[in-house]
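Example 470.
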Amino acid sequence: MTNPTPQTMGQQFGRRSWAEPWKIKMVEPLRMVSRDERERALVEAGYNTFLLRSDDVYIDLLTDSGTSAMSDRQWAGMMIGDESYAGSRNFYHLEDAVQRRYGFRHILPTHQGRGAENLISQVAIKAGQFVPGNMYFTTTRLHQELAGGHFVDVIIDEAHDPEDLHEFKGNVDLAKLQALIDREGAEQIAYVSLAGTVNMAGGQPVSMANIRAVRELCTRHGIRLFLDATRLVENSFFIQEREAGFAERSIAEILLEFCSYADGAWMSAKKDNLVNIGGWLAVNEDDLFEELRNLVVVYEGLHTYGGLAGRDMEALAIGIDESVQDDHVRSRIGQVRYLGELLTDWGIPIVQPVGGHAIFLDARRFYPHIPQDEFPAQTVAAELYLDSGIRSMERGIASAGRNATTGDHNRPKLELTRLTIPRRVYTQAHMDVVAESVKAVYDVRESTRGLRMTYEPKYLRFFQARFERL
Ligand code: P61
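Predicted structure in complex with P61:
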């Protein structure tokens, strides 16, 4: 038999190939881990990929949070850190970058996203109020609950169906939001919490038409609208690609328009903004800002550093400008899509359409014989690590935690394992290795057994929970 002629990626898809808009200046060696070592490490980690040592990991797709490669410019920025306690010049660079790129008036740095979530939740939620949002996120919902709020999911139904091909599965269902307002009264709604590319739904975007409509509804009822801006740049890419009228507009322009409909935003800068640590909180209202600026000194640090070193703020300011470049975002999402296309072609069940930051394996269809209470998505993550040393993350019943009132497991429709792609870190060859490992695990799926939880922490249990094989 003769081998078929090798084809480049572009040829396989009937187009010219594209490549990343950067070249590599410094490398970080990876360690190959043997099967014996992986078996030992997994048992030691209680079958929880969060408890693995990174030295025991080959390709790390746990998260895109804080794992990006910074540019030479960002590293140069680190060298001009002004570590003054108050009024660091790097803070003003950061303030300027957020104002220019996101359009908000007042900015506070925070140590990372959840620091900002804590502040906004404490200031903007009164005990007993409701916080509608387009699907929960673990830390966001926890801070809303700790502030006495009740999270209500108002995302469109399509978001809970991994096979539905809706182009904007992150959209708010306006009828659900209106029904909540009618039932509870507008004064009982703390604010609407809107995330761009919805993490738990598979990195699914919100359309510009949807945020305009949500804004209109909020204005009619006097309700504030805050954004989780963590992956809003990636959201802007999908608007440019899919929504009529945006093909000729830059990602930077789309981002600014999107934010113009909101009263503020919190940000985990460890994602879109291309830094290893950092976050920020931004609002437009003066009174609200005054309260937040007072509270930041309690939890984070002075309002001109918020838990960050001056050098971190400089790298962040530069990262913000780099993050909105069209070529960068296109190649970043293109890489995620490349992996998704391979897996789709091979019949492996993943959330469709492929989102911005990760491939989400659909563990319900991957392991139909493992009931949800036996943690099928956690099992996929464990098996993938065993097969090749690739680290992924459970996003199913373990992540969903327990119902704050009844104490029973929350049982989300989506039972997913996330292969999260760090920005500017891995190559196409790494994606091939990942795809082949997923296939190897899928090929032996029928003989795989589920897990039992043996240790369960009270808050955000998935981070530190332990499991054993059934
Ligand atoms: C992640 F397993 N995300 O995706 P912080 N909003 C959004 C996030 O994605 C986010 C935060 C706020 C992480 C890290 C992580 O259950 C988990 O800077 C949309 O991490 O504090 C973080 O920002 C919080 C992983 C967080 C998790 C919570 O990997």
